[in-house]
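for the writeup, i need someone to sanity check this before i put it in the appendix. the sequnce is what the collaborator sent (i think, or maybe the updated version? ugh). structure was predicted straight from it, no edits. if anything looks off just tell me and ill rerun, i have time this weekend
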Amino acid sequence: MTVKLHGAFSEFAGGARSVAVDAGDVASALAALVARHPSLAERLRDEHGKMREHVNIFANDEDMRYLDGERTALRDGDIVHIVPAVSGGEW
């Protein structure tokens, strides 16, 4: 399966925009990603190991928060998107 890195996350992975990993769920996909690009570890998780609030993770087109969280199952061909939160702007 593929992990696609959007925004600044690509910069912390040496410019990689996508990384192929073997994983059965979102948690193992993130672990495999961090094993290959350790600088992403502190960008994805806080000092207690919890996912940072400003990180949005999608399994294919679905936000993992509305699925089974990090236990969301993945199959061959699935795509995990890691997207920085966007906020601000003018009303």
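Residues 26-36 form the longest helix (11 residues). Helices lie at 8-11, 26-36, 41-44.
thx in advance!!
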